[in-house]
Amino acid sequence: MLRDLDTLIASMQPELQPGVYVFASLPHDAAVSGAGIVATFREREGLTVVMEEGAARAAGIEPLFRAAWITLTVHSDLNAVGLTAAFARALGDVNISCNVIAAAYHDHIFVPVDDAGRAMDALFDLQRRAGMLAASSKP
């Protein structure tokens, strides 16, 4: 488990997950079990779900946001400081929005589906630059 920011960024290894995912909002009493659900979050206004687009379509769920899902495969510490800010800035610098879910082992980034390739390029560029910085600071 990594905590050092430069090491985290240099090791983040972004991986684009196959498929298209959607964010949607459901009533609090909605039954949300089954295939296709990636994450849920209970908010005051309703239950936010992140799920496979095909499963949402089959269930008649209206998407709020269509996304590509990128996982940073480095095992980051939940107490690590600055990783989210670093990749959000790298994506923001190329005008790509991101929605982030930090799970127990990895960070998961959801970007507009049409921006997936550019997002991966931006993240790999950030990783490469951090690796060069880390290498140049070694004695």
Automatic annotation (TrEMBL):
Residues 3-66 form the DUF2241 domain. It comes from the Bacteria. GO terms for molecular function: transferase activity. Pfam families: ACT_3, ACT_7. Residues 68-123 form the CASTOR ACT domain. InterPro entries: ACT-like_dom_sf, CASTOR_ACT_dom, DUF2241. PANTHER family: BLR5128 PROTEIN (PTHR39199). This is Acetyltransferase. It comes from Caballeronia calidae.
